[in-house]
Automatic annotation (TrEMBL), chain A:
It comes from Streptomyces coryli. Belongs to the amidase family. GatA subfamily. GO terms for biological process: translation. This is Glutamyl-tRNA(Gln) amidotransferase subunit A. HAMAP family: GatA. The active site is at 80 (charge relay system), 155 (charge relay system), 179 (acyl-ester intermediate).
From TrEMBL, chain B:
Coiled coil: none annotated. Residues 46-98 are annotated as: Disordered. The lineage of its organism: Bacteria, Bacillati, Actinomycetota, Actinomycetes, Kitasatosporales. Heterotrimer of A, B and C subunits. This is Aspartyl/glutamyl-tRNA(Asn/Gln) amidotransferase subunit C. The gene is gatC.
């Protein structure tokens, strides 16, 4: 018998469609897996057993009635706890929303349900998506299935860990500075940040609105494409949603090829701070792309060296404004309302009690960067850097079809190692941030294990805005070539939980 | 550019409506000083003749027809309220007593 939890989403959907498996069987297998291993991994903040089984039964009934099924009908999915889910708790990894039950679905949630996807539950994350390790969750860290003492990346560490431990074949993340791609890299999974505006942000709790972008997470490139297609597309409820057809990502994932493509290696993403084993696997990926018929050239993007600095002004500035809504008055936590404090005092006491250290740091940093006297020097300059980075990308894409780099400079680091060292933590997103600032599309996929620690390394592919399909064309080719070389999926090498 | 002092952090916390403890102020002051020192790298371009980018997309207002459509019921809208009264959010005293 095939092990249900090891199937890809595409295989699962096909087996449900042809009657080989039922959606209920598939859902039960994943719920059992969660039951068996999530105590150790802690990928989920909330498992919606009843809701998942009800949706699965609905899929089976639809099939029995001969109704048309969605392309991912019956496939279980782990949803990052940043998307609102009607009637199901949504915490964003924060105490300030503990116990909050949203009265409405995010557009992404709605589209998943409409596509007959089975949502298993909500996954752990750094509080308000601020972090690169999931240690900033108010509900405790998530372990990396490759080594439970190490971080699964962040902020979407719950989603990446759920995939890598076979608790779900699909997951959803959000990527403001790398929160889909870096977790994918350190867990040996696939993650895509679509073009900014490609996926609706409606009902996705805001952190930094000009950077936040939801996207698909999976174990294969094709599965990511199938999910991408389901979740993307114009939404009139998000004024920054792009009113254009979804790029042909599934077709691209089914026709992987790099022959004749020009691929640029970003010169700036190497050097001090990059782990030797990460660079070794990256360099091998470059050789592989050449063998597959791509022309690989070096590209210089000098402004990328200032991306991290610009990001840590822009994102905190937007967050300090966005998180002002958590005032203890309309929903979520309220502290100190004992008749002796004014509304303003209650707001300050609520925010003090409800936000964790990283959120407080970023709110204060943003408040500082936006204050009169500092605005031009900090926020204004950061916006100029953003322009320069966008221009660097434009220039590069005049010459090449896609850019590549390591996704993150190191493999998964031990839980606790960088927890109270913000600058060290921020370096995890060195290579991913430029795409958020420019708003283009990027993917991370596995390119091997670092020889020195045996942990997964991610290859990042970057494409121009609204050319998301290029990620899948290249990604599918790389994935197939590595699979042929390794003889099995990389995750097969992960230790048993 | 100058660093940030403990007093400035206390002022920022007040502006940001965060009732920080003394211990937090001590801890955050050092960390914020280090972060601000690092992000100050952007000031190299402060005088450059480059337009600022605030958003990856050219934003325009998106309008919809002004017509009644289904929305949350009062019960749904108030379902997460810490306190409510007469279909309204009940909040602590905002204005001083006269």
């Amino acid at each position: 018998m095939t092990d249900i939890i090891k199937l890809t989403a595409a295989e699962t959907a096909a087996k449900i469609a042809n009657g080989e498996l039922t959606a209920v069987e598939v859902t039960e297998a994943h719920l059992a897996r969660i039951e068996a291993v999530d105590e150790k991994v802690h990928a989920f903040l909330h498992v919606d057993r009843e809701g998942a089984l009800a949706q699965a039964r609905k899929v089976d009934e639809k099939r029995a009635a001969g109704e048309k099924l969605g392309p991912l009908a019956g496939v279980p999915l782990a949803l990052k706890d940043i998307f609102t889910t009607e009637g199901v708790p949504t915490t964003v990894g924060s105490k300030i929303l503990e116990g909050w039950i949203p009265p409405y679905d995010a557009t992404v949630t709605k589209r998943l349900k409409a596509a007959d996807v089975v949502i298993l539950g909500k996954t752990n994350m750094d509080e308000f998506a601020m972090g690169s390790s999931t240690e900033n969750s108010a509900y405790g860290p998530t372990g990396n299935p490759w080594d439970l003492t190490r971080i699964p990346g962040g902020s979407g560490g719950g989603s990446s860990a759920a995939l890598a431990s076979h608790m779900a074949p699909l997951a959803i993340g959000t990527d403001t500075g790398g929160s889909i791609r870096q977790p994918a890299a350190v867990t040996g999974t696939v993650g895509v940040k679509p073009t900014y505006g490609g996926v609706s942000r409606y009902g996705m709790v805001a952190f930094s609105s000009s950077l936040d972008q939801g996207g698909p997470c999976a174990r294969t490139v094709l599965d990511a494409a199938l999910l991408h297609e389901v979740m993307a597309g114009h939404d009139e409820l998000d004024s920054t949603s792009i009113d254009a057809p979804v790029p042909p990502v599934v077709e691209a994932a089914r026709n992987g090829s790099v022959a004749g493509l020009r691929i640029g290696v970003v010169k700036e993403f190497r050097g001090e701070g990059y782990q030797a084993g990460v660079m070794q696997r990256f360099d091998e990926s470059v050789e592989l792309l050449k063998e597959l018929g791509a022309e690989v050239v070096e590209v210089s993007c000098p402004s990328f060296t200032k991306a991290l600095a610009a990001y840590y002004l822009i994102a905190p500035s937007e967050c300090s404004s966005n998180l002002a809504r958590f005032d203890g008055l309309r929903y979520g936590l309220r502290t100190g309302d004992d008749g002796s404090h004014s509304a303003e005092e209650v707001t300050s006491l609520t925010r003090e009690a409800g936000f964790g250290p990283e959120v407080k740091r970023r709110i204060m940093l943003g408040t500082y960067a936006l204050s009169s006297g500092y605005y031009d020097a900090y926020y204004g300059s950061a916006q100029k850097v953003r322009t320069l980075i966008t221009k660097d990308f434009e220039k590069a894409f005049e010459d090449v079809d896609v850019l590549i780099s390591p996704t993150t400079p190191t493999t998964a680091f031990p839980i606790g190692e960088r927890a109270d060292d913000p600058m060290a933590m921020y370096l995890a997103d060195l290579c991913t941030i430029p795409s958020n600032l420019a708003g283009n599309a990027a993917m991370s996929l596995p390119c091997g294990l670092a020889p020195e620690d045996g942990l997964p390394v991610g290859l990042q592919i970057i494409a121009p805005a609204m050319k998301d399909e290029r990620l899948y064309t290249v990604g599918a080719a790389v994935e197939a070539a590595f699979a042929a070389r390794w003889g099995h999926p990389l995750l097969e090498e992960a230790p048993a939980l | 550019m100058p660093g940030i002092t403990r007093e400035e952090v206390a002022h920022l916390a007040k502006l940001a409506r965060l009732e920080l403890s003394d211990g937090e102020l001590d801890h955050f002051a050092g960390q914020l000083d280090a972060i601000i020192g690092a992000v100050a790298a952007v000031s190299d371009v402060s005088d450059a003749d480059v337009p600022p980018t605030s958003h990856p997309l050219p934003l325009t207002n998106v309008m919809r027809p002004d017509e009644v459509r289904p929305s949350l019921t009062p019960e749904q809208a108030l379902s997460g309220a810490p306190a409510q009264e007469q279909q309204r959010f009940k909040v602590p005293q905002i204005l001083g007593e006269e």
